[in-house]
Amino acid sequence: GAFYCPGQGLSSCCSFCLTSQWTCPTMHRVKQQLTERNPGILPSLEDLLFYTVAEGQEKIPAHKFLTALKATGLRSGDPRLKECMEILKETLKKTPDGVTLDRHLFKKCVQSNIVLLTQAFRKKFVIPDFQSFTSHIDQLYEKAKNLSGGQVADYIPQLAKFSPDLWAVSLCTVDGQRHTVGDTKVPFCLQSCVKPLKYAVAVHDHSTEYVHSFIGKEPSGLRFNKLFLNEDDKPHNPMVNAGAIVCTSLIQVKVMSFLKKMAGNEYVGFSNATFQSERESGDRNFAIGYYLKEKKCFPEGTDMTSVLDLYFQLCAIEVTCESASVMAATLANGGICPITGERVLSPEAVRNTLSLMHSCGMYDFSGQFAFHVGLPSKSGVAGGILLVVPNVMGIMCWSPPLDKLGNSVRGIQFCTDLVELFNFHNYDNLRHFAKKHDPRREGGDQRVKSVINLLFAAYTGDVSALRRFALSSMDMEQRDYDSRTALHVAAAEGHLEVVRFLLDACKVNPVPKDRWGNTPLDEAVQFGHHDVVAALQQYQENYNPADGSDKTSNEKNLDSLL
Ligand code: GLU
């Protein structure tokens, strides 16, 4: 039979999955089994995790655990799971078949990281249903893959060599859930995507006030490498070359080590060849440098040519799509790297950076991008787009062909489609999102709460509570993880009045099936509630599923109540 603790965080009986006692047969059995063996002892988190993964078996093959882990979005290489993975490897070596773990061995492996693992399996991460989310991402990836327009930058050979077919998307959530699709392990240069990062380092290192005594905060309305300053003879903002060069002169710390920390110690390299080529072909940047020097834009005592050298070097820093998604996630997470937990940047530095990315990050497309996508982002000439969904995730898109304004063709398509599907736009309304998906936990939590209240009222036979819910336009047909509805619960408990209210007033579907295929009628029969059986049979005879099917159950509720 089904023996599976789903870890959905539903209610308040099972201390692991928190599934409610009237809907969680699993917890019932887990408790039974454990108390048979150890009377009086409550299951530990490790035991509950074991039963979740084992699905009724006595032993778990390691790959089953790893597959289940991957489905939560966690990677086995996550630094936060280091102990668990090391002990797992050692433990497996000592088992007879090198593969399976019993409950005792499993416990030994997971206990050092049990908090993180429990969070993952209890779906407490920001994107609880990670697999369904990533399958959408993969679809968007495939769609953009078919695009063929755009030109690969060719002003230096190190960029010209890239195939126009390269295309990669990686994401990392603020809880360190990872997903990656396409050419995500190929190193490429950050180029202008480094501008927001070094600006963040500069603000972190000094202060907002100090940095902005040298650089403005306003979109320039001009090409990124224009030789032009604002009315105060300062660069317009840190996302255009003039501003980024001045910003480079403010940095005293080791930028590379900051970048490495932002990337959670994943790949950050350096292309010396790109650096040399950038310097050789960098006449415009030299011109800007001299102009900035003439206008006294640098702090006193600055050696302009060595600033330019550092500027070119920073452009030539290499990342992979994967490692850069962690950098973006550090920005999404207020400056704390999600996979190491280390604070890299101050919240203020991150907020400033996101604000400027939002208004100035996409060259001369910035305004339109802010309008259509509504998310902070920065693109670079190598084809990268660093995209941040604040408090949710960081994304790196990479594909070398660029449109006329210098943004990655596939990247722009992906970002646009992403926000069309999910309510990630800064000004998407998070409460009433009629057409878009909200993959975030809060939404899920609210649903979970309302399902708990609904099923609890049905369980206790509280018709007046149900009336209130219906009036507040709660979905009276909603299901818990086991696809149980209020009608199932009321039928099983023999609450005829509740059953009638749900059917008469709320016009709920009388024949929903739960995950075991049972209808409310089956429940009433099983528990011998003959009056409920009779009522349900009568409804089923008259039930026409097409009736009012164009209305949501909320609308049906209101129809019957007002
Ligand atoms: N190396 C380029 C420059 O400084 C960067 C171009 C870019 O990515 O926007 O002009």
TrEMBL record:
- Recorded family membership: Belongs to the glutaminase family.
Q: Which InterPro entries match?
A: Ankyrin_rpt, Ankyrin_rpt-contain_sf, Beta-lactam/transpept-like, Glutaminase, Glutaminase_EF-hand
Coiled-coil residue spans: none
PANTHER family named among the record's database cross-references: GLUTAMINASE, GLUTAMINASE KIDNEY ISOFORM, MITOCHONDRIAL
Return the NCBIfam families for the record. Answer: Gln_ase
Give the organism the record lists: Xiphophorus couchianus (Monterrey platyfish)
**Pfam families according to UniProt:** Ank_2, EF-hand_14, Glutaminase
* Keyword vocabulary terms for this entry: Acetylation, ANK repeat, Hydrolase, Mitochondrion, Repeat, Transit peptide
Q: Where is the composition biased (Basic and acidic residues)?
A: 548-562
Write one Gene Ontology MF term: glutaminase activity
Where would I find the ANK repeats?
A: 482-504
Domain named Glutaminase EF-hand is located at 46-128
Region described as Disordered:
543-562
State what protein this is by name: glutaminase
Q: Which GO terms describe its cellular component?
A: mitochondrion
Question: Where in the cell is the protein located?
Answer: Mitochondrion
Which enzyme class?
A: hydrolase
Query: Example GO biological process term?
Result: L-glutamine catabolic process
E.C. number(s) listed in UniProt: 3.5.1.2
Does the record bear Hydrolase in its keywords? Answer: yes
Q: What is its main location?
A: mitochondrion
Superkingdom? Eukaryota
As its record notes, the protein acts as a catalyst of: L-glutamine + H2O = L-glutamate + NH4(+)
